[in-house]
């Protein structure tokens, strides 16, 4: 039998079907091997042994070739194209609210310079929201802060019950808790004002910083604001203070940060910067704690001084990420929520 | 409040080489915020924000005062050309003083800190000179005629509102200033009838008619018209609290009232009246026809503050030279002299005595106010920036835990595929009723903007259910099945009764709502418990799994957040490793709710199985219809157990 012939025949088989045809052809009951074996009777006796061995060897070899070819063919068959550009196994992707992220980020920034986050009531008496902050009853400054009132009888000494319109009610509470300076507070909380329009929601978040110690000056306030601006808005962000008036601070300032879109020059690619218009963006109000506020918190203003600020969380998110439609924040719309 | 003044007008008072843009920039950094500069004709209009305690700078002369202090700090020349406040005084008034007279009576002297009036006769009503009408229009005020324009011009120039009456319409030439009675009516200049709440400052004439809603708007009956011949120039300062109360109660608000309600300087009344007379003589050909009526019962004495120079350095953080302090204060109109020596050290020793100008007595009260004046003009941008020294302040553990765990749970639920939502703390009455809760037991806002946010919520679930409902029609990008939302927020539990109330308890809760199925939500809760190492299976009685509520195919749960923290174990209880075999056996049960006998449930099976101390764990293998196949893990930490022992234990289940 011609070795080349069966080897070629077996190795060119493409399917398992072809191979089983070949198996029958060579190894079947009426196959070629059996045919060769049946011819042994015609072989002289002294050669019979050698003849038989040769045929058996041939049989083993054909068997081997077919087995190998079967493996190859079946493997080739299973090797369909595997697309490695497909995405991997899908794991669930939930989301955390953008405000939660900002709160966490801000907490950590202040934690590094020794400020502790506190938690104080969102429902407070007028005393906490106003009187303790140098805004006596009937003071016109109270009109500037629109307030949501709770429909319960007023407290004989502390006034009406209100939803806190700012986080500054934490100032008096923290002073009374700590009793003796130093104070390093960051108070982040929900605040409420009866405003509901495209740029206001009746609930929002503020973060309030308060630092009281024996020798705190405007230099330190500037230092803290610069530190925060660089950490939160990015390296190179500058701050500036402009004169302003608040009852609970003296002196009082408004803080601006340099616009990161135009680098604080007010012009972007030769045109007026669309983000800031003047190179600066207003961050919020700050100042040196008014002596009356310290006194009301049981702290001697002749031996201590401090600074305080209150900024809007939604505002810094807007400034940093450009998420300007504030109404989406609290609408519960899954298409907004799932993005973060 | 904002006011507008023009650049040329400012230059009438101020000699400066600063450009309008420089004025805008430098003033905004150190004083009044100039929000805009606009070129109008050959003039520029400044749009200036007036902060509530600085009504004194809401005028051309006020801006000149600020500029005189601020511009030199930027190397610019700035000096008053002439100070009208000093130039114009009653001594200048000459003329025939006895042609017309007025009967003036002030019933309650506290209404009006200073009352002045003078009669000008034979005015010729006509258009104002060009510069007056152009300036007024540029500043956003309508030009009407030479007499009316004079009062508006005076207001912007000196910051003191002025009213002019038609003298001949004041019956009996009598002016009686008094408090209004409740329900009294007046028709004001704009032809609107205003009903007064009572206690408002008003003026009646000899016939008892109201002719002025003082400080807010004049009466129509005595207003200037084309036929007016004789004019009363009327300049006063009022009790600011009353003015404010009246504008708030009646809703009538004018530029004049926004000035008066902030409290004006009675000293400014004199130059304003005299300047007004000059303008009417010049541009309306009027002649003085009466004496000056000036009722000024309580002239304010000089206000003095004494403080140490050392305080500036201490509060600002850098030393500002004494000479600079003095020049800044002087340029702002303060008087400065050396004060008495106090204390022994140099810091306390050198003091200064500051006399406060009359137009700043309302806003300058304590040394910090003086420090602000010096620091702002010196320039906040010139003050260095340095963090305060670090100190350790201990954070109360319960506050720390609250934030650490909130963050941990939020991150964990996010990784399970849930979406965090933040809802308003206020909900509607309908939302409360939907959960069979009583709105009356909730705190209610008395001035809520909308019925949707009227009550402070006592549960997070109504908000979450609303979220699920409102989102059900929306297509999200995330293909994960259904909606799975969570919120960590406070609920507000009222304390007290109808008569005496304390602040509510504010309690953090974790709320979860899904529209998938029961077992999805139960799995989420179990996963949280496992994450926090809360052994809810063994401590069944201590901290059970919360109840799952079903509402129209949505499943919800609410947990007290503090109790999650309290029951959490940072590291679970350690079980020592042992080399002995674990034998796993499967068994199938038929679960059913049989009323007559005890029902067969997973919980029941488990309870029985746990009676064997060898049982380490149970797993659900399959549930097909009511055929439940469970896998039991048996093992002992002391020895190898045989399969027979395990089977024995299982057979008892």
TrEMBL record, chain A:
Please tell me where this protein is predominantly located. cytoplasm
Binding of Mg(2+) occurs at 250
Report which superkingdom the organism of origin falls in: Bacteria
Q: CDD domains, from UniProt?
A: PheRS_alpha_core
Domain Aminoacyl-transfer RNA synthetases class-II family profile span(s) in chain numbering: 106-319
Which Gene3D superfamilies does this one have? Bira Bifunctional Protein, Domain 2 (3.30.930.10)
What the entry lists under InterPro entries is as follows: aa-tRNA-synth_II, aa-tRNA-synth_II/BPL/LPL, Phe-tRNA-synth_IIc_asu, Phe-tRNA_ligase_II_N, Phe_tRNA_ligase_alpha1_bac, Phenylalanyl-tRNA_Synthase, tRNA-bd_arm
According to its UniProt record, where is this protein located? Cytoplasm
User: Which Pfam families has this protein been placed in?
Assistant: Phe_tRNA-synt_N, tRNA-synt_2d
Q: What is its EC number?
A: 6.1.1.20
Q: How is the cofactor bound?
A: Binds 2 magnesium ions per tetramer.
Tell me how this protein assembles: Tetramer of two alpha and two beta subunits.
Protein name as it appears in the record: Phenylalanine--tRNA ligase alpha subunit
UniProtKB/TrEMBL annotation, chain B:
One GO CC term, this protein: phenylalanine-tRNA ligase complex
What does the record list as GO biological process?
Answer: phenylalanyl-tRNA aminoacylation
Enzyme class, spelled out: ligase
Its EC number is 6.1.1.20
Cofactor annotation: Mg(2+)
Q: Which UniProt keywords apply?
A: Aminoacyl-tRNA synthetase, ATP-binding, Ligase, Magnesium, Metal-binding, Nucleotide-binding, Protein biosynthesis
Any one Gene Ontology MF annotation carried by this entry is: ATP binding
What sequence ranges are listed for the domain B5? 300-385
Q: What is this protein called?
A: phenylalanine--tRNA ligase
Protein's organism:
Candidatus Roizmanbacteria bacterium CG07_land_8_20_14_0_80_34_15
């Amino acid at each position: 039998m011609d070795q080349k012939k069966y080897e070629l025949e077996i190795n060119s088989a493409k399917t398992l079907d072809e191979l089983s045809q070949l198996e029958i052809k060579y190894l079947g009951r009426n196959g070629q091997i059996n045919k060769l074996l049946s011819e042994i009777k015609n072989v002289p006796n002294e050669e019979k042994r050698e003849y038989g061995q040769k045929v058996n060897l041939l049989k083993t070899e054909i068997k081997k070739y077919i087995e190998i070819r079967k493996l190859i063919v079946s493997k080739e068959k299973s090797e369909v194209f595997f697309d490695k550009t497909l995405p991997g196994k899908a794991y669930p992707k939930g989301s955390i609210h953008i405000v939660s992220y900002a709160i966490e980020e801000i907490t950590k920034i202040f934690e590094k310079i020794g400020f502790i986050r506190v938690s104080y009531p969102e429902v407070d008496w007028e005393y906490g929201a106003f009187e303790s902050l140098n805004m006596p009853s009937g003071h016109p400054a109270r009109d500037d802060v629109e307030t949501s009132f709770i429909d319960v009888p007023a407290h004989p000494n502390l006034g009406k019950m209100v939803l806190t319109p700012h986080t500054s009610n934490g100032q008096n509470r923290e002073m009374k808790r700590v009793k003796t300076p130093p104070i390093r507070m960051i108070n982040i909380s929900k605040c409420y004002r009866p405003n509901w329009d495209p740029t206001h929601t009746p609930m929002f978040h503020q973060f309030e910083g308060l630092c009281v110690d024996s020798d705190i000056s405007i230099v330190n306030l500037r230092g803290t604001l610069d530190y925060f601006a660089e950490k939160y808005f990015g390296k190179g962000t500058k701050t500036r203070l402009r004169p302003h008036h608040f009852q609970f601070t003296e002196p009082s300032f408004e803080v601006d940060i340099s616009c990161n879109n135009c680098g604080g020059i007010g012009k972007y690619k030769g045109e007026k910067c669309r983000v800031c218009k003047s190179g600066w963006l207003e961050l919020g109000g700050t100042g040196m704690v008014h002596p009356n506020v310290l006194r009301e918190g049981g702290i001697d203003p002749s031996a201590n001084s401090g600074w305080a600020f209150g900024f809007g969380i939604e505002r810094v998110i807007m400034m940093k990420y450009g998420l300007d439609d504030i109404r989406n924040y609290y609408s519960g719309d899954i298409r907004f929520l799932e993005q973060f | 409040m904002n006011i507008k003044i023009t650049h040329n007008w400012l230059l009438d008072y101020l000699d400066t080489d600063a450009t309008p843009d420089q004025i805008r920039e430098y003033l905004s950094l150190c004083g009044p915020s100039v929000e805009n500069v606009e070129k109008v004709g050959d003039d520029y209009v400044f749009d200036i924000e007036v902060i509530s305690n600085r009504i004194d700078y809401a005028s051309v002369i006020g801006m000149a005062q600020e500029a005189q202090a601020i511009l030199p700090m930027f190397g610019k020349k700035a000096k008053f050309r002439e100070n009208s406040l000093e130039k114009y005084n009653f001594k200048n008034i000459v003329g025939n003083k006895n042609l017309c007279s007025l009967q003036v009576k002030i019933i309650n002297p506290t209404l009006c800190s200073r009352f002045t009036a003078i009669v000008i006769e034979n005015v010729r009503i006509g258009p104002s000179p060009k510069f007056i009408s152009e300036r007024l229009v540029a500043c956003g005020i309508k030009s009407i005629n030479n007499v009316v324009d004079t009062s508006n011009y005076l207001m912007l120039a000196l910051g003191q509102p002025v009213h002019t009456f038609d003298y001949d319409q004041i019956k009996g030439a009598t002016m009686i200033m008094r408090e209004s009675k409740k329900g009294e009516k007046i028709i004001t200049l704009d032809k609107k009838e205003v009903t007064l709440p009572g206690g408002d400052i008003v003026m009646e004439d000899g016939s008892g008619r109201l002719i002025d809603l003082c400080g807010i708007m004049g009466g129509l009956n005595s207003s200037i018209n084309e036929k007016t011949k004789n004019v009363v120039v009327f300049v006063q300062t009022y009790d600011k609290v009353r003015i404010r109360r009246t504008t708030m109660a009646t809703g009538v608000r004018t530029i004049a009232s926004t000035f008066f309600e902030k409290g004006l300087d009675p000293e400014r009344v004199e130059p304003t009246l005299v300047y007004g007379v000059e303008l009417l003589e010049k541009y309306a050909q009027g002649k003085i026809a009466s004496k000056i009526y000036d009722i000024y019962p309580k002239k304010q004495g000089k206000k003095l503050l004494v403080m140490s120079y050392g305080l500036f350095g201490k509060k600002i953080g850098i030393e500002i030279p004494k000479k600079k302090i003095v020049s800044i204060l002087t340029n702002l109109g303060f008087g400065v002299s050396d004060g008495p020596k106090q204390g022994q050290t140099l810091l306390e020793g050198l003091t200064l005595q500051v006399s406060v100008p009359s137009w700043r007595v309302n806003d300058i009260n304590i040394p910090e106010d003086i420090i602000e004046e010096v620091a702002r003009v010196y320039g906040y941008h010139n003050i260095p920036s340095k963090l305060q020294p670090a100190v350790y302040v201990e954070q109360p553990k319960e506050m720390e835990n609250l934030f650490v765990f909130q963050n941990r749970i939020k991150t964990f639920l996010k990784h399970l595929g849930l979406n965090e939502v933040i809802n308003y703390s206020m909900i509607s009455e309908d939302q409360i009723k939907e959960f069979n809760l009583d709105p009356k037991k909730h705190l209610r806002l008395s001035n809520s903007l909308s019925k949707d946010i009227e009550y402070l919520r006592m549960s997070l679930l109504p908000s979450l259910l609303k979220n699920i409902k409102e989102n059900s029609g929306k297509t999200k990008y995330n293909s994960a099945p259904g909606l799975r939302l969570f919120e960590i927020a406070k609920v507000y539990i009222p304390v007290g009764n109808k008569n005496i109330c304390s602040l509510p308890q504010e309690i953090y809760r974790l709320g979860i709502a899904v529209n998938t199925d029961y077992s999805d939500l139960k799995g989420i809760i179990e996963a949280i418990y496992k994450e926090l190492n809360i052994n809810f299976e063994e401590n069944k009685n201590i901290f059970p799994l919360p109840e799952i509520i079903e509402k129209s195919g949505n499943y919800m749960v609410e947990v007290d957040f503090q109790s999650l923290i309290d029951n959490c174990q940072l590291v679970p209880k350690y079980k020592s490793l042992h080399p002995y075999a674990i034998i796993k056996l499967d068994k199938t049960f038929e679960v059913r709710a049989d009323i007559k006998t005890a029902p067969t449930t997973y919980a029941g099976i488990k309870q029985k199985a746990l009676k064997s101390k060898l049982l380490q764990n149970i797993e659900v293998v399959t549930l097909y219809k009511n055929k439940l196949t469970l896998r039991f893990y048996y093992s002992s930490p002391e020895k190898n157990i045989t399969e027979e022992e395990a089977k024995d234990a299982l057979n008892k289940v």
